[in-house]
Design a protein that fits this description.
Length: about 190
């Protein structure tokens, strides 16, 4: 959004990604006061148009992430969400953010071995410190009972990372986490 130039772009396609259809909004304050509806902007000072060519169309992995988010957020169907996210991993094996979601869902499904495999794959690719920290935190939690040495190595690496938001992840890594994660697939975060 660029308020000073009275221009905004808004993703209007399927969440949780920014691919697909976008709306372009522009405005001037010369029109009459009052509300307006998309397609009924005559004389309002507003213009609105949708664009399918602003960004790439939804990739197969994106559609699978959407399916996973829908299954998880609407009905908390962890099994269906895992199936969809595994399809997304197959479609985009080099996307570490999908590996993080897959690790959360595997961990929630009490499949720590699968979570650890996703964490290993994600760490091989992730360079952004906060997302790497999330992989390390959840990998350590998944490995705590079945591979304590690996859990310790991941906590140690998390302790050495530098970047914004990592203090919170380090503090959370010191807590005894006894419950399953509660992912928010719309925000790609978990607690």
């Amino acid at each position: 959004m660029t308020p000073s130039s009275r221009h905004a772009w808004l993703g209007v396609d399927r969440a949780p990604t920014c691919e697909g259809t976008w709306a372009e909004l522009a405005w001037s304050w010369a029109g009459p006061a009052g509300g307006w509806e998309l397609g009924a902007t005559a004389d309002s000072g507003f213009t609105a148009a949708t664009h399918t060519d602003f960004v790439a169309p939804h990739a197969p992995a994106t559609r699978h992430v959407h399916d996973a988010a829908r299954a998880y957020e609407h009905t908390h169907d962890v099994a269906a969400a895992r199936v969809a996210i595994e399809r997304a991993v197959t479609a985009a094996p080099d996307d570490p953010s999908i590996r993080l979601i897959a690790a959360w869902l595997a961990h929630e499904s009490k499949a720590p071995e699968r979570a650890i495999r996703h964490v290993h794959a994600g760490l091989a690719l992730e360079t952004e410190p906060y997302r790497r920290g999330q992989l390390l935190l959840w990998g350590a939690r998944a490995a705590t009972r079945i591979d304590p040495a690996q859990a310790r190595r991941w906590r140690d690496e998390l302790g050495r990372l530098t970047g914004e938001g990592l203090d919170e992840l380090r503090a959370r890594s010191r807590d005894r986490h006894r419950s399953r994660p509660h992912p928010n697939l719309m925000m790609v975060d978990a607690y």
